[in-house]
Design goal:
alpha+beta; 2 domains; five-stranded mixed β-sheet; four-stranded mixed β-sheet; 7 helices; 14 strands; 20% helix; 23% strand; globular
Amino acid sequence: MKLAGRKNVRKLLAAVLLLPLAAGCANSGAGVQSKEAIDPPPAEVEQTMLQAAETPAQAEKPDSRVTVAAGKDELTVYLLDRNGYVAPMTLGLSGDTTQSPENTAAAWLIQGKLPADQLPPGFSPLLPEGTKINSVHADASSGVATVDFASPFPQIPPKQERKAVEAIVWTMTELPGIRNVKITVDGQPLRQLPASGLPLAETLSRDIGINLEQAAGTNASRSMAVTLYFSARSEQGEGYFVPVTRLITRTPDRNRAALEELIKGPLDDRKLQPVLTSDVTVDKLSESDGTVSVSLKDPGWEPEMTVPAETMEAVVLTLTETAGEPKALITLNGSDEFTDSDNRSYTEPVDRPVAINALSR
C-alpha cells in the first residue's frame, strides 16, 4: 500500500484526538484538570449491574483475556486517576520474582505498596494504606481468583467503595484464565460493603461494570450494559484509555450498540475525549472462530490516509470487551489495506492488546 505524505496523514478517523493534545498543553484549571469526584451511579443502576453479575449466562460468556498470554515482566492493575475514574495501568515487575503475579497485583492495589518509580503521577491505589490481605489464590482451571482480606474489611469512603471493588475485580481478571473473582474476609464471603451498604454477589465478574454511567432516557430495568474505551490525558499530557460502562436501552445486537455508543462519545466530555467522529457509521458486524469483524464507514477517509493507532486500539478494546473474543478484524470503507500510525497492518485480525496504558513514569 502506498503511504500518504505528511500533509495527507489523517489522525484517528478524524482529527478529533488532536484536541486532547491541545487540552493537555493549554488549560491550567478547568476541564480535564478538574479533580472533582464523579457522581455515584443511581441505586437502580447498581442493582441492575449486580444482577447481571449473578446471571449464569453472563458468567459463561467467553472472555477475550483467556487466550491471551500476559507479559512475563509486567502486570496490569486498575488505579484511580486524577478525575475519579478507575483506569488500567500496565506496570513493570521488579527483579523480585518470589511473589506470584496475583499476589503482586493485589498488593499494588494498596496505597504504599506500589513502588514509587512505578506509580504514574496523578494515579493512586484505591485500597487504603494498612490494608491486610490474608491470601490471594488464582485458579486458571476454574477461572476464579479469591482475594481474602483480614478482618475488618478496609475502611473506604462510601463513594469510593464500589470503585475499590471494580479495581479488585478488573485487576484480577487481567490475569490469564481468570474470569470471576471472590472477595472474602477471614474466609467468609463479603456480601455487603460496610460503608455504603452495597450488596455483593459471592462471585463477581466484569459484568459488574466499571465507571458506571446511564444514558439519558434509559430505564434500568429494560437496559443492558456496554463497556466503552475513551481517551484521557495524564498530568504530563500522555494519552491513556478509560473504560466506561454505559447502561443503554436493550437491543439484540450488543456489539453494534457498543460501537454506536463509542461513536457518540463520552457523556463527561470535560474529562474524557471521543475516539471517533460522529459521522462514522457501523456497516457490518459478525463473529466467527474467536474473531469479531466490523466494517466501518467514514466519509472523510481514503485508502492513502494513515489511521492513528489510538483510534484502532480503542475500537479493538471496545469490540473484544463486548464480544468476549480475543481478536478483531476491521475494515474501513470496505478496505483492509491500511496501516495505523504505529505502522500496524489490518489485513489480518489483530489481538486484543495485552499491555494497556503503559505510561512513562
